[in-house]
Structure formats: C-alpha cells, structure tokens
Design brief:
Layout: H1 19-27, H2 33-36, H3 41-48, H4 52-66, H5 75-83, E1 87-88, H6 93-98, E2 103-104, E3 108-113, H7 119-129, E4 142-147, H8 154-163, H9 168-173, E5 175-178, H10 183-197, E6 202-208, H11 212-217, H12 224-245, E7 248-253, E8 255-258, E9 266-269, H13 272-278, E10 281-288, E11 291-298, E12 307-313, E13 316-318
Parallel strand pairs: 3-7, 3-10, 4-5, 4-6, 6-7
Antiparallel strand pairs: 1-2, 8-9, 10-11, 11-12, 12-13
Bound molecules: adenosine-5'-triphosphate and magnesium ion (MG).
The site of magnesium ion has 5 residues, from helix 7.
Length: about 325
C-alpha cells in the first residue's frame, strides 16, 4: 500500500490534539501520519511521554486518516490478495522455482548456513535483482542492506549488475547500506531510520546477519532471555514494515551444531524459537563440492526438504546448467 504523505500537522484539525502533543511526536522524528500507524499506543506513550488514552486516540486517528481499517476478507478475496502480491526474481531459475516464483513482499525469508554457504552472495544478488525492470522479473525498487558482519562488497554489486546489464553506478545508488556496530545502533536504525526511508520505493530489507550483533553482545546463559527479547523487538518492527509498506524482508542466520545422542551432529539455525517463528520461509544453504544447495526447512507453501542447486561464480549466483 502506498500512503499519501500527510504531514502530522493534519492531526491538529481533530479535537483533543494540540501543539504540545504534536511537538512531542515530531521530537521522535515522526513527520508523516502513516509513520504513526507503525506504533503501538504503549510505545507512543513511553517514547513521547504522552498518556495512554491520548496515545490510543492518536493511533486511531492516524489509522483513520491513512484509511487503514481492520476488515475481514473472505478466503477467496484473501487468496486473491496473497496471489497478486509483488515478487521479484532471485536471478536463478532453480531457486525461483523452489520459492514458487520469487521473493515476495510481506514475506520474511531466512537463509541460514555455515561460513561459505553463499548467504552473503545471495543477499548481494537480491539487492540487484529487486532493481530489475518489472518485465525482467524485478520491482524497479531500491534495497536497504544492513551489514552487521562487514562483508558488503560494492565490487560484487558491480560484478552482478554487469551480468544483468544494469548501470553499476545507478544500482549502487539504489542500495542503502548501513553498518551498525552494536544492537543499540541496529535497533535505532530499524525503528527510527527505516521508518522514513521505506516509503520511498524500497521493496527489500536485507539483514546480513540477524544474529551476529546479539551473539556478540549478550554472552552467557544469564543474558539469553534479554537477548531473545531484543531480537523479538527487532523482528516485530521488520514485520510491521513488511505489512505496512509492502516490503520483502530477507535475513541471514548462522547455524549451530545440534548434538544428538547417536549419529552425527546436524546443523540448526541459531536464535532459537524467536527466529524460528519469525520467518515465513526458512532455508538452509550448504556447499557441496563445486555446487551449492538451498533447502527449505520450514514454509507454509514450500515442501520441507525440497531443494535447489546453484553455483557461485564471479557473476553471482547462477543455475548449475
Ligand atoms: P559467512 O557465514 O562466513 O558469512 P556466507 O554464507 O555469507 O559465509 P558467502 O560469502 O556468501 O558465504 O560465500 C562465499 C563463497 O562464495 C566463497 O566461498 C566463494 O566460493 C564464493 N565467491 C565469493 N565471491 C566470489 C567470486 N568473485 N567469484 C567466485 N566465487 C565467489
Ligand atoms: Mg556472509
């Protein structure tokens, strides 16, 4: 959904909202009414120091102004809405087939795997393919790339754009790169910075990786509950963006060895239940000699265990034949 850019001053036209309240909202960096719809009243109360009744009133008003209403669809209408969502190609036919068309807005995709399994390369490729014109399977949109591991490479973007015959400078300009150094910066970036950026033709948010900063910061069992709570908060914001701004979210995850009493240990994505439940589709990537394999481990529409192979070359991810 694209929202008209109605300034928050519009709220002054409604009884009960005065300049003091408006000032408190703009101090939070909120400029447009559609940004308010992202918040819960409790957040507005806490962040802007506004009492809860007024916060509820503000959110209600904002929803009314942008025309967002809780409305049931019958399942046929729902099917239509879900099937007509925008999606874009991964640039690899076998992966597009696995994910049933491409990466779809509103969905959250997790790509987990060991080092060298192709997670970062895939992220680079998606930051380019989302920019392709619609007739070539793209969305002619920009991407946000949150690089928590310091592995974003403009030169890889150049390699990939030349394969897709895109202008490299233009493509690089269309990728907004952030490199948060700790969880506080990551949260600030997602909650405050992205809010205003996403409305201007961003259709993909990439986080490579979702877990690295949390694992570095919250060490030891005694911090586990807090760590999970913070990850949950971040993912909750990503979901709000995905739904309100028609954005696809993609994140990478590390894997842990799951010891078993017999046989060999197998790899599971890190981050426990919070991350497991957050993603719409979860995939495991692995290297297998000179090829790479992507396997679905959880999805409401892709069979568990189904997989695709691809190769990584200087041009990015490609089909094996
Ligand atoms: P990590 O967990 O360490 O972040 P990753 O899953 O992100 O690992 P990638 O960086 O995506 O791993 O994949 C690395 C692999 O991609 C390398 O092992 C290499 O084989 C291949 N690769 C990277 N760049 C090129 C290139 N320019 N030409 C060919 N292959 C490349
Ligand atoms: Mg990587």
């Amino acid at each position: 959904m694209t929202y008209d850019r109605v300034k928050i001053e519009e709220l002054l036209n409604y009884p009960g909202i005065g300049r003091v309240t408006l000032h408190k909202l703009s101090k939070l960096g909120i400029e447009y009414v559609h940004e308010l719809v992202l918040f819960n009243p409790e957040e507005i109360m806490e962040l802007a120091n506004i009492d809860i009744e007024k916060a509820c009133q503000i959110i209600r008003l904002a929803r009314r102004i942008v025309g967002r209403r809780a409305k049931a669809l019958n399942a046929l209408e729902y099917e239509h809405v879900m099937n007509t969502r925008k999606c874009f190609t991964t640039g690899v036919k076998s992966i597009d087939k696995l994910v049933k068309g491409g990466i779809t807005v509103w969905d959250i995709c997790e790509f987990a795997g060991e080092y060298g399994s192709g997670k970062t390369q895939l992220c680079h490729q998606l930051a380019v393919t989302v920019q392709l014109p619609e007739e070539r399977g793209g969305l002619e949109s920009r991407a946000v790339y949150i690089d928590t591991e310091g592995t974003f490479s403009p030169s890889r973007i150049r390699d990939i754009t030349s394969r897709f015959q895109l202008n490299a400078e233009k493509a690089l300009k269309n990728i907004l790169v952030y490199r948060p150094i700790n969880v506080a910066e990551l949260e600030e970036l997602v909650v405050e910075e992205l809010r205003s950026i996403l409305a201007s033709n961003v259709k993909l948010i990439i986080i490579d990786s979702i877990i690295a900063l949390y694992r570095a910061e919250f060490k030891g069992r005694e911090w586990l509950a807090r760590r999970q709570q913070r990850i949950n908060y971040l993912i909750d914001w990503l979901k709000r963006y995905a739904n309100l701004y028609d954005v696809a979210v993609v994140y990478t995850n590390q894997v842990l060895s799951q010891p078993v009493p017999w046989g060999i240990a197998y790899k599971v994505p890190a981050g426990g239940n919070i991350i497991a439940h957050a993603a719409t589709h979860r995939f495991l990537l692995r290297r297998s000699q000179d090829k790479w394999v992507i396997e679905c481990i959880d999805s409401p529409k892709i069979a568990r265990g189904s997989s695709a192979t691809f190769k990584i070359t200087e041009k990015g991810l490609e089909d094996t034949k």
